[in-house]
Amino acid sequence: MEALNALFVTPFVEIFDAPWFFMEVLTGGLMAGVMYSLVALGFVLIFKASGVFNFAQGVMVLFAALNFVGLMDAGVPMILAGIITIAIMVAVAFAIERFVLRPLVNQEHIILFMATIGVAYFLEGVGEMIWGTDVRPLNVGIPDDVFFVGDAMIQQSDLFAAVVAGFLVVVLALFFHYTRTGRALRAVADDHQAALSIGIPLNHIWVIVWSVAGFVALVTGIMWGSKLGVQFSLSVIALKALPVLILGGFTSIPGAIVGGLIIGAGEKVAEVYWGGFFGGAIEEWFAYILALAFLFFRPQGLFGEKIIERV
Amino acid sequence: MKFGKLGLLAASAAMTVVSTAALAAEQYIPSLVYRTGPYASGGVPLADGYADYFHLINERDGGVNGVKFKVEECETGYKTDRGVECYDRTKENATIYNPWSTGITYALIDKVTADKIPFLSMGYGRTSAADGRVFEYIFNFPSTYWNQATAIVQYIANELGGTDQLKGKRIGYIYLDHPYGKEPIPTMDILAEKFGFTYDKYPVAPKSMTEQKSIWLQIRKTKPDYVIMWGWGAMNATAVKEATNIRFDMSKFIGNWWSAGEDTAIPSGDKAKGYRAATFHGVGKDAPVFGDLQQHIVDKGMASGDGSKIGLVLYNRGFANAAYVVEAVRKAQEKFGNRVMTGEEVRWGLENLDLTEERLAELGLTGLVPPTKVTCENHEGLSPAIKIQEWNGSGYEVITDWIPAMTQVTRPLIEQDAAAYAAEKGITPRSCN
């Protein structure tokens, strides 16, 4: 009886007793979700265009941020550091296409996935060799104060992240839907061989999509790096994107955003109001439970493409 | 320059496992390190400090009574399986191990005991290994997690005006949801009951180290009088950042000694001013030994890194750890002769270590290494204590004298846990009389 009370009564009483606090938890969760979405976006881009689950996405975030902050620490102005880092990420995209993907065209997806594991180790090692392992504080002028809506405290940096993520999504969605390159990207995602047969240059498309993912990784790295400092543990934030991808679908950019918001808000509310009952630290597995619950009704994810196999 | 040094590092890592037969004339020190991976920012200064002290002894003194130290690193990545693999590959002729990981420590307790190689988990690992009657080869001086918890509570009591002032206070305990983070919970339970304070537990899942918003929202709501943190890696910096975000009074936020590195506070910079953490060794590079280090190692280009980490908290910890090992070897030589010591002989040296203030002054270690006396029965040392250091925006300053742990509370728990371990493993505790 006590357990039922703790599960089904107490949390709701607490919510009604302190609605502003609930608003704060919910807002904080949504903002955290935006940060997860930024990571998930990089995965979605590459999966959408090449059907590859890019294990290296987290390390790409780290690598981009390391180059950016390293250049800034070396005295390079911020804008120039950003441009040079984007150039580096494009060069990385070229190298990955030439030395990893091209030799594996039309191989099983699991083989491409394994190759990206190798890419992850390589980038991590190179980043460490060039820039070392120290934690580097990153300040790009993102507002870092708080303001209050009623009694609920909101972080300006969270709001800024939300605006950046929203802008990225709009740009990417327009790019995929309304440009020739974007349509070509989607064609390649559907079928490598078929895309090749109608004259879509597969190699160029892969370079473009990995470059765009590199750019998204840089933006993500700057947002997370401003928060935590640029450090090697940034690579593990990729893990936070997995439930978002499961929920939102691996091929949908809006799915990455909506998935992130649902996971972020869901796990924070669950942790604060139900965490105590389970002994705390439930958000790690609760995110997956939430994602699986959605999969029960939408196996392809909330916005994923329905796969129809003809017999 | 960087490539050159790292190239050498890579080459030395590749050559980690060499035949140790050729090292018979040197005291062989395998060093299990993590210079790569998510925890490298902590692992690198620890490894650098550890190696540099041995190099200093070799260069300045020609070793201990003519016996030089040969340090070889094996990369664990802070992973338990790789740590065990490193141990198996380097154990021949090994003098002592200290893997800088509680997980690796737990995995190796039985192995090192069987191989008769001493193991110094300085400020980490299994607390009850302090009972030397059961854990013959495991040492954890100069203090343990349980005693650290009591000393931190004692510090809070001192701030409040006495232990009686703890009654009715509310403390938040934020910890890595891992055996390391859970280790002091039984002690905290006892202290809470003994002194009448309440404490709320906030576990942080390892994969959520970088996202603690829900925890700090709860802390903002419950408004604890103090928050104690038992963190590691990115969890520390995230917690400090979130604490500044909710405008928590940083002088009431106290990390343990693994939440005491510069990387904990650097990302928050000035906003983290006032953040406090425990330490069991000195900070900075005021100790006289650092002058010798500059002259004999750094100026000759022999430092493990570029010299920039000297004086950092974790560098000093590695340095202090090596100092203990050197003195244990020296002590063992007093009994067994001036030659390379075996693992068993070094264990004797550790069990008879008595580093007084006078001896530390002779070694130039005053203020860096605490006086320590170890016995057969007590592998934690007889006077576990901490100091509290405070972040000033760019570095730490020690703000207290030694705060003794409440050993009268913890020693019975240690003996009880060690007895349970002995019963489980079929060990008959040895007599230390």
From TrEMBL, chain A:
Q: How does it sit in the membrane?
A: Multi-pass membrane protein
An example Gene Ontology CC term for this record: plasma membrane
Pfam families xref list = BPD_transp_2
Which terms does the record give in the GO molecular function aspect? transmembrane transporter activity
State which residue ranges cross the membrane. Answer: 20-45, 52-72, 78-101, 110-131, 159-178, 205-224, 244-265, 272-297
Q: What is its main location?
A: membrane
Coiled-coil ranges per the record?
none
Q: Where in the cell is it found?
A: Cell membrane
The family assignment reads: Belongs to the binding-protein-dependent transport system permease family. LivHM subfamily.
UniProt name for this protein:
Amino acid/amide ABC transporter membrane protein 1 (HAAT family)
From TrEMBL, chain B:
Q: Where is the Leucine-binding protein domain?
A: 28-392
Q: Check the record and name the InterPro entries matching this protein.
A: Leu-bd, Peripla_BP_I
Q: Which CDD domains match?
A: PBP1_ABC_ligand_binding-like
The signal peptide here is: 1-24
Instruction: List the Pfam families.
Output: Peripla_BP_6 (PF13458)
Q: Which UniProt keywords apply?
A: Signal
Keyword Ribosomal protein carried by entry: no
> Has UniProt tagged this entry with the keyword Cell cycle?
no
Q: Which family, according to UniProt?
A: Belongs to the leucine-binding protein family.
Q: What is this protein called?
A: Amino acid/amide ABC transporter substrate-binding protein (HAAT family)
Q: Which organism is it from?
A: Aestuariispira insulae
